[in-house]
Amino acid sequence: MLKYTLKRLLLSVPLVLGIVTVTFFISHLAPGDPMDMYLEQPRQRQLDPEVIDLLRKKYGLDQPIHIQYVTWVKNIAKGDFGVSFRHRRPVRSMILEAIPYTLQLTILAIILDVLIGLTLGIISAVKQYSALDKTVTVGSLAVYAIPSFWLALMLVMIFSVNLSWFPTSQTRSMDYEYMSALGKLFDRLWHLALPVFVMGVAGAASTARYMRNRLLEVLNEEYIVAARARGFRERTVIVKHALRNALIPIITIYGMSLPFLLGGATVIETIFAWPGMGRLTVGAVAARDYPLIMATTTIAALLTVFGNLLADITYAAVDPRVSYDAPRRR
Amino acid sequence: MPRVDAERDDIRAKAWVPGLGHLVLGRVGVGVQLIMFTTLVLAVIAWRWDRVVGAFSTPFFDRWLASICLLLVVPLIIRFSRWDVNRILREEDQRYRGKSPWKVALRRFGANRLAVWSIYVIASFYVGALLAPILAPYDPAAIPDVMTNRYLAPSSVHLFGTDEFGRDVFSRALYGARVSLSIGLLAMIIAKSIGTLYGAVAAYFGGIVDGVLMRIVDVWIAFPTFYLMLMLVGVFEANIVVLVLILGFTAWPGTARFIRGEILSLKNQAFTESARAIGLPAHQIIVRHLIPSALSPVLVTAALAVAGMIGAEASLSFLGLGIRPPTPSWGNMVAGGQDNLLNAWWMAFFPGALLTLTLISFSLLADGLRDALDPKALMQKYV
Fold first, then answer.
1. Residue B244 pLDDT > 90
2. Which of A276, A285, B312, B374 could connect to B234 by a Cys-Cys bridge, CB 3.0–4.6 Å?
3. Are A30 and B235 inside 8 Å of each other by CB?
4. Do A149 and B234 touch (CB under 8 A)?
């Protein structure tokens, strides 16, 4: 087990290097250099050429590109992502401030996803061809297809603007500072409700579909027939025999769904003015703040690699059929 | 009972009216559809006659195209109706009716009512987008007297209401469909072409080539796709062409990985061996023999990919990073309605609803295609 973990860790090193490289070169694809692109926006003030040269020197953009690349990789290894053009602050501290917010959102969304998705998937597989099953199969497809920004806006319109049940945006109420600890927690959850729902429900739809198909496959296996023949109750057969095996691949699915969650978070965070990584990225792209764009993209990719790694290792720990010696081929 | 020749000629003559031949032959479903479709086309031509003809006196390419397409449809329907009636008559002669896998797939697809409806929805949206200059009740860019025309609720005059400048939301949504739908389709084609070729090359040559190419894919896939798109949008000034390229170039690696797997299992089969034995060069084996054999699952993912691309474009435009107003796209129209949720809900609702309907239809289409093409599912039903 330890050997497998180490091996997977070692294999992801070149991947990480690749990610860092791709981000660097994409941001240098732009005509001119990042500083030109940043300064040539209509909103920017006209600067003296000398000042621009100074700025360029400050950000190391006067160096030849291979030196810049080496510096970029070295700095990332030290955890230094440079300084934001627009905010004149170290990117690192901005991201460290944003990550907890994104994590709150995504983790709660995954929990919601698991709760709704697995429940519906299991019920509709067990009661195949029932009215509920048909509703879930078609409904999950529809829910999954709804663009999240539209769903979010419609929910805001109904529940925040018209009914005033939930706040329209922000992370906390005006009087947050004066609340008790429990009140603060409740206030945060109240603000999280709509964004988490929008993010979670789309995930739940795909989970339900996957879980249903997977469980139906497992229910056709011979060991299920054997278990039934031995006279176990249906409940025992499903919970103890079928479900255990059907749940294992779900772990991988969650590992792979991380990039979609992070991508979806960009839109949701922007709509709900949620100060996480996603909103930071969108703001950076709009302002062409390259150090910030490069950093958030790199970190999102690293988080994805980490999520996949975690899923693979968990999978190996749970499923004895995965060999520890050879990495699994997908 | 075989038909006599006079009867056949009579039916063939009736087929000049689209659908009538089918009705006589007892193919009521196809017949009624043909008649309804023809009536609809003729009605549109009659209703917008001045615009159909007037297009030819304008310099706008899209108006020419719309008019030509609309006028061409009529002879094409007649041609199709006669061809199909002849086919049916020919098939009646034959004792055995062949059941090729494609025919079986087509029949299975036709039996899936949701999938067929999704085709209707998608087709009508694409037709609506193409014919936008003929169908749109108002000029999408025209700003009338703002004070009296803005924020009008949906009514028979303005089907989807008007926006903050008094522009007709329905007309704008029709023109927005052109942007959204064509970007989705083109980006899908780019992504699938690159992915297919890339995966096929990697699988066919194997060894170091495969290793290097697939490591690149690994890195590419590690990025959350939407972040990659955001980054590219930040580097390049986004207009429609650039956006299509960006979407296409970010979405190919999944296909590459998939095709590689398919072709790895095909490349040692007898038909590849024999192609190699007769001395075909590698590029011909890949393009003529390997890729076509691996393509039918790609068809399923293609439908999903169009939905993904349309959704991505809409999200980017919604964030203000894709298609910029005043050019309408469904995404930036929803964004425009975001600030008017309280007083003009229709501004965000209708473009988003059309978008949702499109995405759901593509998902249902993909679902139907998979059910129809999946050989495993076929076995269960027909063996």
1. yes
2. A285
3. yes
4. no
